[in-house]
Amino acid sequence: xxxxxxxxxxxxxxxxxxxxxxxxxxxxxxxxxxxxxxxxxxxxxxxxxxxxxxxxxxxxxxxxxxxxxxxxxxxxxxxxxxxxxxxxxxxxxxxxxxxxxxxxxxxxxxxxxxxxxxxxxxxxxxxxxxxxxxxxxxxxxxxxxxxxxxxxxxxxxxxxxxxxxxxxxxxxxxxxxxxxxxxxxxxxxxxxxxxxxxxxxxxxxxxxxxxxxxxxxxxxxxxxxxxxxxxxxxxxxxxxxxxxxxxxxxxxxxx
Amino acid sequence: xxxxxxxxxxxxxxxxxxxxxxxxxxxxxxxxxxxxxxxxxxxxxxxxxxxxxxxxxxxxxxxxxxxxxxxxxxxxxxxxxxxxxxxxxxxxxxxxxxxxxxxxxxxxxxxxxxxxxxxxxxxxxxxxxxxxxxxxxxxxxxxxxxxxxxxxxxxxxxxxxxxxxxxxxxxxxxxxxxxxxxxxxxxxxxxxxxxxxxxxxxxxxxxxxxxxxxxxxxxxxxxxxxxxxxxxxxxxxxxxxxxxxxxxxxxxxxxxxxxxxxxxxxxxxxxxxxxxxxxxxxxxxxxxxxxxxxxxxxxxxxxxxxxxxxxxxxxxxxxxxxxxxxxxxxxxxxxxxxxxxxxxxxxxxxxxxxxxxxxxxxxxxxxxxxxxxxxxxxxxxxxxxxxxxxxxxxxxxxxxxxxxxxxxxxxxxxxxxxxxxxxxxxxxxxxxxxxxxxxxxxxxxxxxxxxxxxxxxxxxxxxxxxxxxxxxxxxxxxxxxxxxxxxxxxxxxxxxxxxxxxxxxxxxxxxxxxxxxxxxxxxxxxxxxxxxxxxxxxxxxxxxxxxxxxxxxxxxxxxxxxxxxxxxxxxxxxxxxxxxxxxxxxxxxxxxxxxxxxxxxxxxxxxxxxxxxxxxxxxxxxxxxxxxxxxxxxxxxxxxxxxxxxxxxxxxxxxxxxxxxxxxxxxxxxxxxxxxxxxxxxxxxxxxxxxxxxxxxxxxxxxxxxxxxxxxxxxxxxxxxxxxxxxxxxxxxxxxxxxxxxxxxxxxxxxxxxxxxxxxxxxxxxxxxxxxxxxxxxxxxxxxxxxx
Lengths: 255, 788
Known about the structure:
The complex is a heterodimer of chains A (255) and B (788).
Chain A: E1 15-16, E2 26-35, E3 42-52, E4 57-61, H1 68-75, E5 83-88, E6 91-92, H2 98-108, E7 109-112, H3 124-132, H4 141-147, H5 163-175, E8 181-185, H6 193-210, E9 213-218, E10 229-234, E11 237-243, E12 246-247
Parallel strand pairs in A: 4-9, 4-10, 7-8, 8-9
Antiparallel strand pairs in A: 1-12, 2-3, 2-5, 5-6, 10-11
Helix pairs in contact in A: 3-4, 3-5, 4-5, 5-6
Chain B: H1 4-15, H2 17-54, E1 60-68, H3 71-76, E2 81-87, E3 89-95, E4 103-110, E5 122-126, E6 136-140, H4 141-146, E7 154-159, E8 162-173, E9 193-199, H5 200-206, E10 212-220, H6 226-237, E11 246-247, H7 252-293, H8 295-303, H9 308-348, H10 362-387, H11 390-394, H12 406-412, H13 418-429, H14 431-469, E12 474-483, H15 484-491, E13 496-511, E14 514-523, E15 547-550, H16 551-557, E16 564-569, E17 576-585, E18 593-596, H17 597-604, E19 609-617, H18 622-629, E20 635-640, H19 641-650, H20 652-695, H21 700-737, H22 750-776, H23 780-784
Helix pairs in contact in B: 1-9, 2-7, 2-9, 2-10, 2-20, 7-10, 7-14, 7-20, 9-10, 9-20, 13-21, 14-20, 14-21, 14-22, 19-20, 20-21, 20-22, 21-22
């Protein structure tokens, strides 16, 4: 059993990029998503082509309404595309039924949202354990909380935690199942700079130490520096792609 | 070890404990009623069965004028007859010290040697009669208790006109007299009517029945049907003045217990159904609200791979916890009430040992029924929530699509205040939820109508109907029908103001396949005393031919006005006649058939005879009247209206009063539960909106008005509907509770309706106040923050 290190380093330094190589984890071709019909029709995705690889950290940039969240939801199995191809390894997410999508989300994907979405009636630790109860090969809730430096606060309820702490609980909850994919939708959107950096640091560490494919949606172009690849989104499709030579540690960011 | 989802369940429940308790209480009320009724049915039924078996209660009974004992042998040869016992059953009059009016009763014979084969007695106190005893009796418990009689005391009896003192040997119970009352009288008066047992020899000598019997009881062999035996018996006994054999289903005491069990059956189904429907509406309201509040949480659970079934189960558990709580409350409540009601039964029914016995099957049934009701109430809402695509649920619910309400569209919009508009638009946007809320409150209002309807019915019986129908003060019955001159003797008694004769004749009335055995009452056509009234409370003029019967009797026979009834007289010349049914009488107890007295006498063909008289007696001379009456030997019984009424007040009315009180408490609990729940849900639903209003500068009072306006509108819709629903409940329940022995008239008064409205208004106001207090602590900033 591969264990993450028991005493994780305090910070993640600059690192060499992981070149996209081998089989992609996600294969996206001509992905289209249309909401509503007739006059009320909204085209959220208008033909996305994209490959995402194991272990890389990808930042999705783009204006509001450009389709970033829709893409993320489709990748995460929260939503089903209208047309196009969407493969996770050999699983066809366009045709998977509710049972298969539930299975996929339970075993493979970790989510982090802008508004944390913790269960208010459960403590930090219980929020994590809620997920480890149903996951196949989870790490312990303590370990997950330690990775986001929240060990001492584990018995607090969400209402007793600051925004940054709540978001770190959400990260611990997302990573505790050792997901293959970590999907973050504006993880720092509701936080101030300092807290945001702490959260990003945590995400970055998880990405490095667990080798999880991490996709982060943001409005904040500065965060692009910590990515292996940066995808610019507009009008429901990939506008352009950029590959960073080196990734900046989250601690070096400022906005 | 609790799963974390269950932990969430407990904590969420703790936060909404007020609502959870309200739902559990309503479920508890319904289940308490069900547990109580089912356990009482079980108690009565099993106690009666055991009593019948242990004391060998007979299957078929017959009265004859006089038959030689040798006839018993011939009865034994009837196919299907197992055991036969013959004896004497005779009317006696008593003179009880301290009792103004003469008491009457039934003297039954016991075998001179050995134990009775059938209808064995149970000795409560004292001792059995020793073989060959003389001058001693055993007394039925009800009479003994009512007159405070103890073994060793002496009572004076008139046996066939001869006055004699008897020493009480023991106090006994009989399976034949679980309910002790004068034949034909629907209401017991244990003070003036009792049952006595004495040796055959002594009774036979007194009534000139040596070597003969006038009463017979028998049991049937296993798997024998009753009808052919009764027919054979009637044929055999007709030459001896047989009055028609009858089975247990026509046995007065047996019927009374069966009727009580039937009433309990109605209660065990009717009330829980209503209460659990209310609970289902409430659960639906509570959970629908919870699901809206936890929309994002549901989305998160789904995002992290919780299957729909797990989410459905999780939210159903909320309902089940309330159901479980309600079941425990209902169980405990039902057991407590059951114990209380069994004590009440001790006043009516004489069993050796009637204990409350819990019907254990009531619990699983209660749990299953209420769980089903709760599931029905919430399943669709829960499933809808679970089916919501997570990506959609993740976003806060989009602002609802409001539009001007229909009231505004009628063009009077400009006169409505903003708060009123907010309220009606809210209601109109969620019509189903509003409908459920209104339905719950309407049912709660409706339930309140029922108990007072019972009370008003009893009042009507006590006052209106008694004064209306029975205007006499005293009724006197003769030992047997006599010539008119005996009637004239009554006119001579001191203090008599008015007096009217009546004729009473035992008959079997048949229509189609149905038949009933009862006494036909012949009264004067324009009688002042026993008046036959119809449902509009007007006196029915008895026709010169034809018969008027209780509505209930017509229902039992399946006959309608205009039909020809077959009347077989069971006394005198035993004629059989076709008599047209000319009208239906409205009465409240037993089943009666009325004819004009002379018409009845013509049918009987025995000339003008009377069975007794109804009288009004000057109150000042009543003592004197009664004293002289005690000396008239041919008087068999005396009924004083005031004592009957008083007795009714103390027994039947008291029991109905207790049941009424229980219902009332339950109904009030429901009214409060429903209105509190409604108010809490409104607050929870509108928290953000109300906080926003506060932030933009509305005062607390104005914000409160918004909330209260909506509640008031819903209550205004619910209350009139509830009054209609309640009228329906009351009608249905009284109809179901009405039996051949006792009925209550359906009385719906303005007071009753006003009371129901008042309780609901009070409950709603109180609930609104509780919620308004919470409004003061509204977290303005928190409520405006992004959803958690």
